[in-house]
Amino acid sequence: MEIQLWRKILDPYNQAVDELVVKFNHIKKEFRDERLYSPIEEVSGRVKRIYSILEKAQRKGVDLNDINMIEAKVEDIAGIRIICQFEEDINKVVDIIRNRADLEIKQEKDYITESKKSGYRSYHVIAYYTVETINGPKKLEVEIQIRTLAMNFWSTIEHSLQYKYKGNIPPEVKERLLSAAQAVGYLDNEMAAVREEIMDAQNSNRAKTLLVSDILTNIENLYSVANQREVKKIQDEFYKIFSTGNQELLARFNQQLDMLAENHKAQTYQ
Ligand code: 0O2
Q1: pTM, whole model, 2 decimals?
Q2: Do residues 141 and 128 make contact, with C-beta atoms less than 8 angstroms apart?
């Protein structure tokens, strides 16, 4: 098959990956905009390389001339990876996926409850997704891998070793990887135990960051409509309050700025 043809075949998969990365990132943003904790920490995606598609198809006994069969059997041509901070976030992400109208679940593979022999842990959802192309809609399969940061660390390292040893990792290295996988499980459990603490700290950091950015937006808006000397005084006041590190004072200061901006009709649309 011509390489040119492969580009055309993979084009809808590229589109699916691009669209889904945007959509999942938007879910993360929606949570954060609502000042809520997001079970999604990071989203990435890739289209499998032609070499890997052919290799996998061959491994599954598919005739390499039969593109329909390749597309049906190689379920991860389009791959999305969603990274969570905590293990319990994984179920929340899976629920989000189950409830989406644009994804129809074909299969779920739970390698969290029961890890693979290698020690690999992750939750996989194989789903149908439709992209609109100039030739009409194309329904294709995507594989969504959901795992914690710690699980992702392990699988990234293990994957590169698989690549290095071409799938034949020496027994002593395998042994080490299994014990590292156990350590990853332990790490995720320990993190779960202090989840509330960690979330409180992150929420408070995020709230502070947003507050400061609100104040600076207000100052910027006032700058274009109010008396310059007055704005300079406001800015000096802001730095003074900022250096106290007192969040309540900052919040009150921001409320005053909101009112001032309202008086000057200087508020911007969000
Ligand atoms: P790449 O380079 O990530 O694209 P199955 O038909 O169910 O027997 P299949 O289709 O391989 O097997 O599905 P599975 O087992 O769910 O694996 C799909 C993907 O999950 C793999 O894609 C890997 O990304 C990841 N994965 C599965 N097992 C392991 C493992 O032991 N270690 C690591 N690091 N990742 C794993 P590919 O095609 O292997 O590769």
Answers
A1: 0.84
A2: yes
